[in-house]
Design brief:
By secondary structure, the protein is α+β, with helices and mostly antiparallel strands. The protein has a domain of about 140 residues: Sulfite Reductase Hemoprotein, domain 1 (2-Layer Sandwich). The protein is about 30% helix and about 20% strand. The chain is built from 18 helices and 22 strands. A 5-stranded antiparallel beta sheet has the order 1-2-5-4-13. The chain has a 5-stranded antiparallel beta sheet with strand order 3-16-17-12-11. Helix 15 links the parallel strand 18 and strand 19. The structure holds siroheme (SRM) and iron/sulfur cluster (SF4). Siroheme binds next to strand 1 and strand 2. One of its GO terms (molecular function) is sulfite reductase (ferredoxin) activity. One of its GO terms (biological process) is sulfate assimilation. Keywords: 4Fe-4S, Amino-acid biosynthesis, Cysteine biosynthesis, Heme, Iron, Iron-sulfur, Metal-binding, NADP, Oxidoreductase.
Length: about 575
C-alpha cells in the first residue's frame, strides 16, 4: 500500500510530536478565535472540538465577521462516577467560563461544556485538574470514556464491574506528556525517537476512535453491542468471575454510502475476569495494526472485523493473548433504561435517578436544574453517577438524608414530573446549534416530538408501555439511533429517515422504513403502525419485535449485508 494513500489525519498524527502539533502557538494567538486546521484535529485528543454557533453563521457571514468560534470540551469520567466536590467544580466552570451556561450529560456517561472561548480553555482544564478530572482522550483516535452500568454501589458485582471499567480506562490512556505540558504548564519534555513512546498506541495512535463498555446483566443501559469492544459481566452469586466479550459494534454511517453501516458487536466467547486487560489490549492492537488508515469512513473496528472475517480476527485475538475463548456463558440481556426514582442498595444506602431531558443541566424557567444539582452537591455525602441515557444518579444517600435530597430535587424541578416509559427510554443527540455535522435538529426538537408520539400511544391505549425512540441530527449515530425500536436520523432541516425493527434490549439493529420525511408524515406512519400493533401484537411482544414479525421491516442479522439490503 503506497504511503500517499493514507488519510490526512495519519500524517498529522505522525508529524505532531505525540499530539503537540502547534497547539501551544495557536493558544497564544489572539488574532483569531480558531486553531489551525491541523491542530483542530489534534485538539480532539486533548478533549475538545472547535465549533461555531450555527444559528449565527449566516448573520456573521453577512457582517463579514469570522464565525463565532468557541469550543466544546468533553471530560473523561470512567463509568460516569464523580464526587459532589467534583460536581461543584464542574458546575462552577459551566457558570463562569462557558457561554452556554450549562452542563451537557452525554450518551457515554460524561459531561460536555459548549461555548468556551479559546482564552478560557486552559483555565478550564486547570480547574478540572485541581479536582482530579481531565479531558485527555475523551475524543480523538484513542480509547474513549469507558462506560459501565452506573449502579456500582448496589451490589458487590457492580463494584467489581466498575473497577474493571476504571482499569480499562486508565490502562488505555495515551502516555504522551503533551496534555500536561500545554494545559498544565508541566515542563516541556524533549521528545526524541524512543524516549517518549506510546507503548500501546505507537506514534500514529489508532486509525479511528475506539469505545468500550462494561455491562452488568440484565441491564444493558450501556448498549454494550454498539461499542467497539464490550464486556458483559458473568457472575457466580455476587462474585464477578468473567465476561462474555463482544466486539465490532458501532453506529456511524453516511447517508447513501452503502459501504458504511451501523453494526452490533459479535459475541466472541467467555474470558476470565483476570484476563480482561490482556484481551482489551489484544483487540485494540489488532485494530491498530489492521485497521484502515486510508479511509476514515471505513476505519472503525467493525469494518476491520468484516474485512478480515470473524474467524481470522478471533484467532488473532487468541494468538496475541495466548488464551482461547471459552463458549459464551448464558446471561440475560434486558432493559436499556434507567431506574428512575429511589432505589435502595444492598448496603442500605439509597440512590435517586433523576431524568434530565436531553441531558441538558441548565436553569430553565420554573426548573432551575443546574441550581438544584448544585444545592444537592453541597449536602450530598455519596457520589454522582452519569448514565448512558444522559441522566444522573444521586448515589449512596444515607436514609437520614433522603428527605432533604428529595426536597431539593422537587424544589428545583428535578423530580415530580410524570415521565412516561417511552420518554424515560428515549434519547437525542446534541445536534444544532453546536454540532458541525448536524443536518437536522435533535436535542432541541425531541421533547416536543416525543409528546406527539406519547399522544399517539395514548390514543391507541398503550401509553404505559415503553418504546425505545432515539433521534439524531445525522447518521453518525451519537444517540445510538440504529439500535432504537424507532430511530429518527436527520437528513435535512425538518426531515428525517425513519428506522424500525430494533429489539427493545439492543440486541438487533433497525432498518430504514421511510426516507426523508417530515413530522406530519412520521406521525402518520406511527399512527398507522401503532393501530396495527395493538390489534395484532402477541402477548408481551415489544413494538420493535412486532415490526419485524409482521414484516413491516426485515430483520437485520448481518449488518454488512442486511442493513442496506
Ligand atoms: Fe458522537 C462526532 C456528540 C456519542 C458517533 N459526536 C461527534 C461530534 C464531536 C461532532 C463532530 O465531530 O464535529 C458531536 C459534538 C456535538 C456537540 O456539539 O456536542 C458528537 N457523540 C456526541 C455526544 C455528546 C452526543 C450526546 O448527545 O450525548 C456523545 C458524547 C459521548 C462521549 O461522552 O464520549 C456522542 N457519538 C456518540 C455515540 C454513542 C456511543 O458512543 O455510545 C456514537 C455512536 C457509536 C459509535 O461511535 O459508532 C457517536 N460521533 C459519532 C461519529 C461517527 C463515528 C463513525 O464511526 O463514523 C462522529 C463523527 C466522526 O467521528 O467522524 C461523531
Ligand atoms: Fe452531531 Fe450527528 Fe452526532 Fe448528532 S449524531 S451530535 S448531529 S454528529
Amino acid at each position: 500500500m503506497s504511503e500517499q494513500k493514507l488519510a490526512v489525519n495519519e500524517y498529522l498524527k505522525t508529524d505532531s510530536d505525540y499530539l503537540r502539533g502547534t497547539i501551544q502557538e495557536g493558544l497564544n494567538t489572539a488574532v483569531t478565535g480558531a486553531f489551525s486546521e491541523g491542530d483542530q484535529q489534534l485538539i480532539k485528543f486533548h478533549g475538545f472540538y472547535q465549533q461555531d454557533d450555527r444559528d449565527l453563521r449566516n448573520e456573521r457571514k453577512e457582517q463579514k465577521l469570522e464565525p463565532l468560534y468557541s469550543f466544546m470540551l468533553r471530560a473523561r469520567v470512567a463509568g460516569g462516577v464523580c464526587s459532589p466536590e467534583q460536581w461543584l467544580a464542574v458546575d462552577k466552570i459551566a457558570s463562569n467560563l462557558t457561554s452556554s451556561n450549562s452542563i451537557r450529560l452525554t450518551t457515554r456517561q460524561t459531561f460536555q461544556y459548549h461555548g468556551i472561548p479559546k482564552r478560557n480553555l486552559k483555565t478550564i482544564i486547570q480547574d478540572l485538574d485541581r479536582e482530579a478530572l481531565d479531558s485527555i482522550a475523551a475524543c480523538g483516535d484513542v480509547n474513549r470514556n469507558v462506560m459501565c452500568n452506573p449502579n456500582p454501589v448496589e451490589s458487590k458485582l457492580h463494584q467489581q464491574a466498575y473497577a474493571y471499567a476504571k482499569q480499562l480506562s486508565d490502562n488505555m490512556l495515551p502516555h504522551t506528556k503533551a496534555y500536561a505540558e500545554i494545559w498544565l504548564d508541566d515542563e516541556k519534555l524533549i521528545t526524541t525517537e524512543g524516549e517518549e513512546v506510546e507503548p500501546v498506541y505507537g506514534k500514529t495512535y489508532l486509525p479511528r476512535k475506539f469505545k468500550m463498555a462494561v455491562a452488568v446483566p440484565p441491564d444493558n443501559d450501556v448498549d454494550v453491542y454498539t461499542n467497539d469492544l464490550g464486556f458483559v459481566a458473568v457472575a457466580d452469586g455476587d462474585e464477578l468471575i468473567g465476561f462474555n466479550m463482544v466486539a465490532g459494534g458501532g453506529m456511524g454511517s453516511t447517508h447513501g454510502e452503502v459501504a458504511t453501516f451501523p453494526r452490533l458487536a459479535d459475541d466472541f466467547g467467555y474470558i476470565k475476569a483476570e484476563d480482561t486487560l490482556k484481551f482489551a489490549e489484544a483487540v485494540m492492537t489488532i485494530q491498530r495494526d489492521w485497521g484502515n488508515r486510508e479511509n476514515r469512513k471505513l476505519s472503525r473496528l467493525k469494518y476491520t472485523i468484516v474485512k478480515h472475517g470473524f474467524d481470522k480476527f478471533k484467532a488473532e485475538v487468541e494468538a496475541r493473548t495466548g488464551i482461547k475463548f471459552e463458549p459464551k456463558r448464558d446471561v440475560v440481556i434486558g432493559d436499556r433504561g434507567d431506574r428512575y426514582g429511589w432505589k435502595q442498595g444492598v448496603d442500605d444506602n439509597w440512590h435517586l435517578t433523576l431524568f434530565i431531558e436531553g441531558g441538558r443541566v441548565k436553569d430553565l424557567p420554573g426548573q432551575p436544574l443546574q441550581t438544584g444539582l448544585r444545592e444537592i452537591a453541597k449536602i450530598h455525602k455519596g457520589d454522582f453517577r452519569m448514565t448512558s441515557n444522559q441522566n444522573i444518579i444521586i448515589a449512596g444517600v444515607p436514609a437520614a438524608d433522603k428527605e432533604q435530597v428529595e426536597a431539593l430535587a422537587r424544589q428545583h424541578g428535578l423530580m415530580g414530573k410524570l415521565i412516561t416509559e417511552t420518554r424515560g427510554h428515549s434519547i437525542a443527540c446534541v445536534a444544532l446549534p453546536t454540532c458541525a455535522l448536524a443536518m437536522a435538529e435533535a436535542e432541541r426538537y425531541f421533547p416536543d416530538f416525543l409528546s406527539k408520539v406519547e399522544a399517539l400511544q395514548d390514543k391507541h391505549g398503550f401509553l404505559d408501555q415503553g418504546i425505545v425512540i432515539r433521534m439524531t441530527g445525522c447518521p453518525n449515530g451519537c444517540a445510538r439511533p440504529f439500535a432504537a425500536e424507532i430511530g429518527l436520523v436527520g437528513k435535512a432541516p425538518g426531515r428525517y429517515n425513519l428506522y424500525l425493527g430494533a429489539s427493545f434490549e439492543g440486541t438487533r439493529l433497525n432498518k430504514l422504513y421511510r426516507e426523508n420525511i417530515q413530522e406530519a408524515e412520521i406521525l402518520a406512519e406511527l399512527d398507522a403502525l401503532f393501530a396495527l400493533y395493538v390489534k395484532e401484537r402477541e402477548s408481551g411482544e415489544t413494538f420493535g419485535n412486532y415490526t419485524v414479525r409482521s414484516g413491516v421491516v426485515t430483520a437485520v442479522i448481518d449488518a454488512a449485508k442486511d442493513f442496506h439490503g
